[in-house]
Protein 1
Amino acid sequence: MANKEFPYTGFTSLAVHAGHEQDPNYAHLTPIYASSTFVYDSAEQGMRRFSKQEEGYIYSRWGNPTFTEAEKKIAAMECFGVATTNGDPLQVKALLHASGMAAITTLFISNLKAGDKILSHFSLYGGSQEMMDKILPGLGIEAVIVDLRDLNKAEEALKADPKIRMVYLETPANPTVQCVDIAELTQLAKKYNKLVACDNTFATPYLQQPFRYGVDFIIHSTTKFLNGHGTAVGGVLLGRDIEFMNNRAAKTYQLLGGNSNPFDAFLLINGMRTLEIRMERHCHNATEIANYLEVHKAVAKVNYTGLSSHPDHYLAHKQMRHPGAIMSIELKGGLQAGIQMMDRLQLCTRTVSLGTCDTLLCHPASMTHYGVPKAQREQYGITDGLIRMSIGIENVQDILMDLEQSLKGL
Ligand SMILES: *Cc1c(COP(=O)(O)O)cnc(C)c1O
């Protein structure tokens, strides 16, 4: 925390500079510290470092200077303009992980024990859902799943089950873009003295800052918009209880071994510098594309929180700066139309994942969910003609031209 506290007035000034410290060799950028271990001047110094009397790096599973810059930058972005209840600028601590799932694992294992429960919503990232279904029950930790868009149901669950220790939110959710109300749910959780965690991957700290509403923890898959270029899988856990983060969370992180690596951290630092300008462009393009597709004759429905037809339109507007860059469309022509559209794409990329500079399209019925029986797929809202889109930062007229030619005659 030796970093000078410059009073950044703009998000990008902060995103460019925050977390950076002068390199001892005067390198402009923080180098990729590709070193598993760190050395001591003397046995006494080793003693001081191990007993935490002196700050310093020891072993890269515990921390590394390249991770530190990425961690401080994300922490600064999540706290930008956010004050504590005393009016002081909020400070949080971040731990950089190998993946979003590794960060979620540290979150759960450091906070929960056998007998505890998590309250969450039914629409979550598949990996988080599977973790609650397949891994946590073996540790004696159960998930209570209710529709968290209904605050009465959320309160009933909190009242009925004192074993609930954490409320776990993800908004907008992957991939449905369903939103839940962070402010209302956090207030409710705090009334019953529960911890609140929020997966902020889809929004990023530029669009939405959950610490503003009093959540205890934020997690990100940095793989998506934070890295922004699709060059590395990564994740981060941020917490406002610094004492907990430095002790229980750090110990769990060190022993689970879910740390990042210096090369991926370096890529992440560089990606995050342009977060604001990328998100502005992503969201601007997404709005134009949603408006175009909403009236296209091959399209039955556009699912985008930026459209007033979306049930979470007002909630997204309340807690997010812009409605994000993820949407899905439903083609009138079903499976065949979906396959044809995917085959004809020339500019847009056919792949899963999201949050990169290029526009990504995925047709779950013929890709991720091929082989899942239709009736089962449709339970998750994955109909034959559903196309998922992560809108990129290309010039919007080119994306529109590619969509137009790929939808022609469908
Ligand atoms: C991708 C994703 C994750 C998992 O992150 P990985 O980096 O793939 O481990 C978690 N939450 C959300 C919302 C995601 O989109």
Protein 2
Amino acid sequence: MEMNGKPDVRDWFPSEDGNPAQRKRMLDLIEQLVRGVDELKDPDGVNLKGEKRRDANFYGRLAAESEIPQVGAPMENVNEELLKLLHGHPYHTKYFFTNILPMASIPGMLGMLTAMLVNGNNLWDVYGPAGAEAEVRVIAMMSKLVGYDAATSGGYTTWGGQGAVFSGLRIAIAKAVPDALKRGVPNNLFAFCSEAAHYSLLKSVEATGLGSDRLVKVKTLPDSSMDIADLKRKLETVARMGGVPVYIVATTGTTDAIGIDDISQIRAAAEENAERFGLPCPHIHADSALGGFFAFFNDYDMEQNPLGFSEGVLAMLEPIRRKMQMLSLADSLCFDFQKLGQAPYVSSLFLLKNAADLKLMDLDAEDTPYVGHRGYGEYHTGYTLECSRMASSISMYSLLLSFGTEGYQRLLGQFLEVNRVFREQLIAEIPQADIANPDNPGISTLIRIYLPGSPRFADEIEGTCSAREIERSNQLNERLFEKLGERRDRMFFGDTKKHLLVGSSEGREIPLYVSKFFVISPHTRPEHVHEVVQYLKECITEVCEASGVPAVN
Ligand SMILES: *Cc1c(COP(=O)(O)O)cnc(C)c1O
């Protein structure tokens, strides 16, 4: 359709009447994109093909040359521009091992597309009935998975694991001090998490006005889980000085080492302290953003082993399962579908044991002039920090129906099997390397390398090595980061300069630097591990030789 020689504005939109011509046009445009990405794929590397000159002034140049065109371009041409953005983009091939950056699955994308096709606003079921329906269903499905009562639990989809930690804190404050919403946050409220927790809580205490001085970091054990004895001490100290512990974040699956806090012990410590000092029990949020998906194994029959997992994988699952079966002891928790749920960003689910807690946060009718609190519509999410909300629940719903419990078990089981084989070969093939999260048999293996004669990981966690020796090994590991980083178009490893804090003979605490083999691509299979370990061996040998020490074997 042309108007004054210009295309009709309706051409930019899906049709009103479902006519096949406009449908075909839209599908052709989608196909152009999907085919374009396929043409950029290279299964022997990590990045999509194409040129990107990312020199020092890359972003400066972009800012200088970017302007809104006076007249728009045909969508086919714009698609070509969009595909250029993807040139050199990291892609989840079998060589992609960096952090929790998953591939978006087809059911996940189809769910997002479904949401976009009607573009409902998940704020209110009058505006977004599909999102509301999917949200209620997904909350019930995941509640039943973890052992919450779906008749009384609640929740909503939100902006990341970060958003869930924040939402938990808002509720924690409102539970402990209901009039804090009106009068502001008193200056004696405290939040707790372990040293290995994600920085989400740090941002949350800043944003809610608690202040980071009132965030108490609890020590971790060598398996990266919270040291309960230290938690008890710190809860007591806070209570003795007139403070009120309002929030404890139990990390159930740390972002690097997949350490899992014991929620049952945390709850016992919190209740005991509250009772002793006549305080309310703090709200306990399980930050299960990453690890929560292992709850899919909660009812797996380990004896019959219907999916035929190896003995090694069953042994890895045992301790994970034991801790995940305690998730229902938390007052709230999170499932980051954008992580192990295999959905596109942003799709995280905040789950709450008692939906009634949300009332503490809800807006009054007079404060919401546009929506909700009418004679029509029954689902108005006035308690979320967001106003308008995307219906990411539809993507979650699509995933849960497509994968089913068994699908998640098979995918996560594959990640575990790859790790199992990797750990075995790493130890057999690379004498300079130790596994720095030996007690967390999960989807990530942390690798720390040493020169001959240096104290090894088992010595370092004793807390008695000299700071100089630990730092010398840190430097060596940093050189490995650089080597792996330079070649990240071949295989893409993660790294962190903040794995466990260990003590030293000088008394100073020092974080350990480690490289990360994080299995996150469905395309990485056990048979690929041999090549990966040989590649690592080459890199490690080069780093050690450049440090003036010949390789050990
Ligand atoms: C990733 C992660 C977060 C942050 O989640 P986002 O979805 O990135 O906001 C918080 N906690 C844990 C344990 C995580 O792994």
